[in-house]
Amino acid sequence: MSESMEVERNLAERLKAGAIANWDRDLAMAREWFPVEEEVAIAGVREPACHDVGFAP
Questions:
Q1: CA within 20 to 30 Å of 50's CA: 1, 5, 16, 39, which one?
Q2: What is the rounded CA–CA span in Å between residue 56 and residue 48?
Q3: DSSP of 13-43, one letter per residue?
Q4: What is the pTM of this model?
Q5: What pLDDT is recorded for position 40?
C-alpha cells in the first residue's frame, strides 16, 4: 500500500471514530438549530453576501 493510500485510510478511520464518538453532541446541536434554520427558510431571510459585510474582493 502506498503512503498516500495509507494516509487516506488513516484519515477516514479517524473521521469515522470522531463521528461515532461525538454523535450525541452533534445530534443535540442539530435538534437545537433545526427550528431556527426552518424559521429562517420560511421567512426567506438570506445570509449576507461578502460585499454586504465589508469583505469585497
A1: 39
A2: 12
A3: HHHHHHHHHTHHHHHHHHHHHHHHHHHHHHH
A4: 0.52
A5: 84
Which residue has 500500500 as its cell numbers? Answer: 1
Give the CA angle between residues 25, 31, 40 to the nearest 5°.
130
pLDDT along the chain (57 residues), means of 10: 92 96 95 90 73 56
Cα dihedral 11, 13, 14, 20 sign = positive
Going from the C-alpha of 43 to that of each of 11, 13, 23, 32, 47, the distances in angstroms are 39, 40, 30, 18, 12
d(C-alpha 26, C-alpha 33), whole Å: 11
